[in-house]
Amino acid sequence: MRKIYDPMEYQPNMQQIDSDIFDHVIAARTAYQPEQYTAKQVQAALRKDVLSFEDFAALLSPAAQPFLEQMARRAKEEREKHFGNNVLLFTPLYISNYCENQCIYCGFNCKNPITRCKLNAAEIEAEMENIAKTGMREVLLLTGESRSVSGPEYIAEAVRIAKKYFSTIGLEVYPMNADEYAMLREAGADFVTVFQETYDLQRYGEMHVAGAKRCFPYRVNAQERALMGGMRGVGFGVLLGLADFRKDMFAAGVHAALLQKKYPQGEMALSFPRLRPYKNHEETNPNDVHETQLLQMMLACRIFLPFASFTISTRERADFRDHVLPLAATKISAGVNVGIGGHNEEHQQKGDAQFEISDPRSLEEIHNAILAQGMQPVYTDYINTNIL
Amino acid sequence: METIKNDTFVLGGKEFHSRFILGSGKFSQQLIRDVMEYGGSEIATIALRRANADSPENILDYLPKNLTLLPNTSGARNADEAVRIARLSRALGCGDFVKVEVIPDTKYLLPDNAETIRATEILSKEGFHVLPYMYPDLIAARRLADAGAAAIMPLGAPIGSNKGLRTKDFIQILIDEIDLPIIVDAGIGAPSQACEAMEMGAAAVMANTAVATADNCPMMAHAFKLAIEAGRAAYLAKLGRVLESGAEASSPLTGFLQD
Predict the structure, then answer these.
(1) CA neighbor of A50 nearest in space, from B110, B108, B109, B190
(2) Interface check A264 vs B, CB under 8 A
(3) Measured between CB atoms, does A335 come within 8 Å of chain B?
(4) Residue A156, by phi and psi: left (phi above 0), alpha (psi -120 to 50) or beta?
(5) DSSP-H helix ranges across chain B
(6) What is the torsional sign of CA A102, A105, A106, A111?
(7) How far is B24 from chain A (nearest CA, A)?
(8) Over the stretch A189-242, which tens digit does the pLDDT of each residue have?
């Protein structure tokens, strides 16, 4: 029988780093009481040039909801100052959906009877060639969490192939140790994103019943280990709706702010996934996040972290995605196929997807939609000087 | 007004009439041509990390061909990265000019003067015309001059902040002490501020966000052009006496002298 770990307990071979970021983030989340904020505090926060954690807390609170329009104006201003009207485009590529975790909300859950597969080197190259043909220069590689099937060396191999076709390579894979991140950086990876899902320890334990992902602090410290491994930047995200989404968003924003302060060179990125329909356990969704709340989270984060890059997910409908670009988001995926091996017309998709998408538009359609918003599609924003 | 007509400045052996350097980031690319034309700019900066020949949108396709390109090393976090980006820029045919930007802080985007000096030294020796972006510090500016910089580009305020000449006194020191063109870069948010920098004796002004975030970008570029010309003319005309507050003392302090 598989051992049930305490979510605070590290499993064998998981690196423990000497850092107080974890304690600060969890303490901030615990202390945050969204209901206690007032309209006055929201207005005061909006008048500030540089926002404190308290100001950020106010903008995320229910008291800020009536100020959405003012927040949108301020967020738009910040977005313009830091990013002009540039919108960065990227394509995700799922290379393996084997998973050893049992996250009860996730389509890749190892107990789910989906078709599993992983792409071999030739298949990865074929997929990448097809993506690169569209003009895309940034790719995000994704896997499920299976060290035995899609280990760090397998991912490194995919990164080395990607280097031939792309100028920027992001990874959205399971958390690793700093030396493994360093190895992937050496291979050519630039950015690492790890979604914490929730910073609520108890809820985290309920949702992640088995597998390496069960270890809560190892996941929270993943971004710092990635920066220690030399990654250019790191991404954060909580699965809004899994626990108290305001408190989780607060924790994610504070986490990014603290890491930026400790690693000033590191580029910070945020994503805003909400829960989508999944195959089983339909009763586990008590905390709905509607578009209004989602937008409030994005605007508060944009005002608090004006320098950070924000990605808007394909889980959102096209019109919502288009409209948050000038206000908060700076990065959008296009030409998305969330199945395994979906970018090759010659053979069928080999493995099932993690979730359903709501914006199936092609790269060309998204490119034109960005231009129609008066924004500028950007395909590359980065030179990896390590390989020049 | 012959003085103004013949007023040019020289960078890397090249003579320029316009003292308005435009940043090309943050714009919709279709607007760039109009912005350059209405701004009368002869020099445009480009972020090399944005220039890619094989993607659907390439900034180089949108820039008028008679412009002098000033590629920048944005994205570089230390001297070595800046040097590599500069070499890549030259290899791609973007010329010998380079604006060195070394920015190891993602929040405020403030430059690292020490690393900027190091990069300037290396690149000058390789024959680049180096325009370093820097925090306005006299000692660092002297070292940049010694390292072979072609001009100095001190910041007025943090990049993109549109806050204006917050470092005015320190920029004035550079203008007074450094025998190189001083080009005020970053933070200029309005034509009036550009005008003020020119009145102080800056050789040129660079702007991007202020123009890119205007409702009418080409018209704002035009406003900057006029303001920069006005400030330059005022500088050449030499500003008149500024009235001090309070009256002059009726019994002069030097009245005791008997020659």
Answers:
(1) B108
(2) yes
(3) no
(4) alpha
(5) 2-5, 29-39, 59-62, 79-91, 113-125, 138-146, 168-177, 191-200, 209-212, 217-237
(6) positive
(7) 10
(8) 999 999 999 999 999 998 888 888 889 999 999 999 999 999 999 999 999 999
B209 vs A81, A267, A307: nearest CB: A81
Whole-model pTM?
0.84
Contact B56 A382 (CB under 8 A): no
Q: What is the spatial distance between Cα A21 and Cα B184, in angstroms, rounded to a whole number?
A: 39
Give per-residue pLDDT as tens, B30-88.
788 888 889 999 998 888 887 765 666 677 777 777 888 899 999 999 999 999 999 98
Reading the block at residue B243, the tokens are: 């009235």
Domain ranges of chain A: 86-281+308-387
Set out the domains of chain B in order of their start, with CATH numbers: 2-237 (3.20.20.70)
CB atoms within 10 A of CB A124: 23
Whole-angstrom distance, CA of residue B138 vs CA of residue B160: 23
The ipTM (two decimal places) reads 0.73
Q: Cβ(B181)–Cβ(B9) under 8 Å?
A: yes
Residue of A nearest to B26 (CA): A84
Contact B106 A137 (CB under 8 A): no
Class of domain A86-281+308-387 (CATH, top level): alpha beta
Residue holding tokens 């991404």? A235
Does B168 participate in catalysis according to the annotation?
A: no
| Residue B84 touches chain A, beta carbons under 8 Å | yes
CA distance A228 to A388: 22
Shortest CA gap B111–chain A (Å): 11
